[in-house]
Amino acid sequence: MSPWEVRLRLLVVRVAVLAAFLVLAVQLWQLQIVHRQEYQESADNLRFRVEAVDAPRGVFYDRNLQLLVTNVPKYVVSLVSARLPDSPEQVRAIQERLSSLLGIPVSASVSLPVASLPSDRALAAPAPTRDLESMFAAAEKRPFEAYPLAENIGRQLAFVVMEDLPSLPGVTVEIQPTRQYADGSLFAHILGYMGRIGPETLQKYLSKPNSDYTQNDLVGYAGLESTMEAELHGHRGRRFIEVDAYGRKVADLDYEAPQPGHSLILTLDRALQARTEQALRAGMTAAKSKAAVAIVMSPKTGELLSLVSLPSYDNNIFAQGRVDEYAQLTNDPTLPMFDRAIAGQYPPGSTFKIVPASAGLQEGVITTNTTFRCDGIMNLESFGAIWPFYCWISQYHWGHGNVNVIGALEQSCDIFFYQMTGGWEDFAGLGLDNLVRYAHMFGLGAPTGVELSGEANGLVPTARYKRLNYNESWTTGDTYNAAIGQGFVLVTPLQLINALSSVANGGTLYRPQVIREIVDADGNVVRPFEPKVIRTLDVSPEVLAIVREGLRRVVEGPVGTAPTAQLPGIAVAGKTGTAEIGERDAEGKRPSHAWFMAFAPVENPEVAVLVLLEGSESVVGLEGSGTAAPIGATLLRAYFGLPEPAATD
Questions:
Q1: How far is residue 536 CA from its own chain's centroid?
Q2: Residue where a domain stops, chosen among 230, 251, 266
Q3: Average pLDDT, stretch 387-393?
């Protein structure tokens, strides 16, 4: 090889080496100068992490500051999809290990024995299936958010999973708060329960002002948990941490504290609520009724002191994820999750008579001197036929004789209210339009506005309603039926006790309330209690005094229908009701709902009570005077601290 060729080859090598160094220099310049910020951020994202810190949810207290619900810790196994390895084989190995730990099948085609599945799985799991493949796929849609795989797992199992975290990249074990309802079914319809945000409501929560909700959050689904979600929720904080290659925390860098949600002090009395439920259950058993409602209320303010709907349910099953029990609840024919106090719609029977009595007196249709004769039956001639209308007393083959409005209320005379409202012979009567107007005035046919979800409207029927729904004209007989709370008339128990309270307090219709105060985490009052007036009745004090006298005689009078509601030293006013439903049985009896409502003391009412016992085809013979009134008396005694009367043989 010639010297020239040697020099040429050396030159080529030198150029190649120089070119290589130039390429490396350019690459280093690209990495350290051009893309420095990008790669620094990527490295920091792997090394540093910002974690959301859940805000403590507000809790509930009764009016005496007894705690009704608390937040207790639960262990949650979650997945952050972005931290999973790229290798499908490694992901599969993670799924198989999780399956063996948590008892969740890897795929839908592989089922595990039911006994091996944890009983405390999340009730409102975001994935529609219970296999890990589907959950991993769902987690990929939001790769940087923690997707829950198993909630409420046991403490021991949580520690086992924690030990395996180095071999389970992307998997985390966190402690999150969950609800614990101190009294379970006692307040379930009022407090409600929580569940995971559903896909149909996710956008609603995300679009709220200053929203910090995520798709994995639990929110209120019923009761006050739902209606007061904005007050209870609070606002998340942030924790800045440094992690190692396995995603484990090695240092805390900074912390922004969350803002706890506000707590609610309720108007309810825990001890009275328990006593009310106890009395109602005993009354249901005695009457063989399968469902009932009892309400205790302050007629001066609209505060609800007790609100019980039976049967009920234990709302702890939602927090604890007892899926099997939840399925039983939804299939239970007695509808334990249905709050009959605010959503049940029933014919009120004779309890409705306070409305036509007030309307007839106020409109001048009758006075206290006006009487109608009750012979137990009256025959209405209409459309060429004779239609008999009975008073309840006709079952004893006599009538009430001549009665005025006070006597008609005392004895619950149906024929008086038939004739006074619908007219008779030359007497025009109150008329349907006036009856409807006063029923609406007393708050019937519309929600009361109580701070609970699912309140029903009830129904105050009109001629137009019957024409549109039944394609039939309104008749005088329909007015007769409406006058005694039958026919098409429907009320909720809460509407009815609210109407009675307006009579008791002299004409103010208050909005019922279950929230007394809203307080912050330090106990400072954020929203104090204020009575809320819906309207003032257009009924004179003199008219209401007459109605109250009739109601007083229902309990205190010589022929009143509720003598069992008398209290020693306290004057009680009330009204019984027996609302017939369904068809007559072989003995000619129709099933009926039994009502009783009352307030006391008459001269300065402190409390109003209402009791409803549901009838059904299998439960006949319920009467307000015999079954509901004694329960009402028990509630009044509980409120005033009076002992139960001694049992008699």
A1: 28
A2: 266
A3: 94
